[in-house]
Specification:
Layout lengths: L2 H18 L4 E3 L8 E10 L4 E10 L6 E3 L5 E4 L2 E2 L1 E4 L5 E8 L7 E7 L5 E7 L6 E2 L3 E2 L5 E5 L9 E8 L8 H10 L2 E7 L4 E4 L11 E12 L9 E16 L1
């Protein structure tokens, strides 16, 4: 299945999923505190040591009403209180960013305090991949290696290495443009725990229509909560590692 088709399917699934979730807002003080579902989205930008967090609280599960945190309830990241905001499709969320000093802070701490002053803490290790080595130029058809400073660790630790051909559309000939777009190179390689390099098969680029391929490297995974109410919850983690391009000659 081509990348565009995959993206279309993902978009449809996301729309259906969002529609299944309630966008109504209730006060957290009006619900059973043991039935508050926690959802966190964590974005770690390794290059500038910035971490962003979006927190959503729902009543009685992932599809319940979103909750406005009634005082003294709050949510913090490394001691900084997240600000109240609105979700894209409606409802309440809390978001904020913090800078991470690599030599001083290795973990992100998320603390949710309910109206009874009970604290639920999640500790997320921020494991830097370190310096990435991606060749700037490659001879078409030749294999090449991408390496990184720190070996991947943990059973669920992996790198997604996305390659996407820089295809320029030709609006004068839309039928040719459609065919070329469908034939454009787009694929993902995955590096797993224990590795600090990966060799890319050069034969995968022999049909390039242009000489430029964009490279994007990131980590993403879903994590279980360490401290949760009876309703449970989830953490979605994404780490932006590298963005650049390779010129094929």
């Amino acid at each position: 299945m081509k990348r565009n088709s995959v993206l279309t399917v993902i978009a449809i699934v996301l729309i259906i999923f969002v529609k299944c979730q309630s966008n109504e807002v209730s006060e957290s003080a009006d619900v059973n505190q043991d039935k508050i579902y926690q959802q966190y989205k964590v974005y770690y930008e390794e290059d500038n040591s910035k971490v962003g967090v979006e927190a959503t609280f729902r009543f009685d599960g992932k599809n319940g009403n979103t909750l406005n945190l009634s005082a003294p309830s709050k949510v913090t990241i490394n001691g900084e209180t997240l600000k109240e905001g609105k979700k894209f499709m409606g409802g309440r969320e809390y978001n904020g960013t913090t800078k991470i000093r690599k030599k001083e802070v290795k973990d992100l701490k998320i603390d949710f305090t309910d109206i009874n002053h009970k604290v639920y803490q999640q500790i997320i290790p921020l494991q830097a991949v370190g310096k990435i080595k991606v060749p700037k130029k490659v001879k078409k058809g030749e294999s090449f290696t991408i390496s990184w400073e720190n070996t991947l660790s943990g059973n669920d630790d992996k790198l997604n290495i996305d390659f996407r051909e820089n295809y320029h559309s030709n609006t004068e000939h839309p039928s040719e443009d459609l065919q070329a777009t469908q034939q454009a190179i787009s694929f993902t390689e995955i590096a797993i725990a224990g590795e600090n390099s990966i060799t890319i098969d050069g034969s995968r680029f022999r049909t390039l229509q242009n000489d430029t391929v964009y490279v994007n490297i990131d980590k993403d995974k879903a994590l279980s909560l360490q401290q949760a109410t009876q309703a449970g919850g989830i953490i979605y983690y994404n780490q932006d590692v590298y963005s650049g391009m390779i010129i094929f000659k």
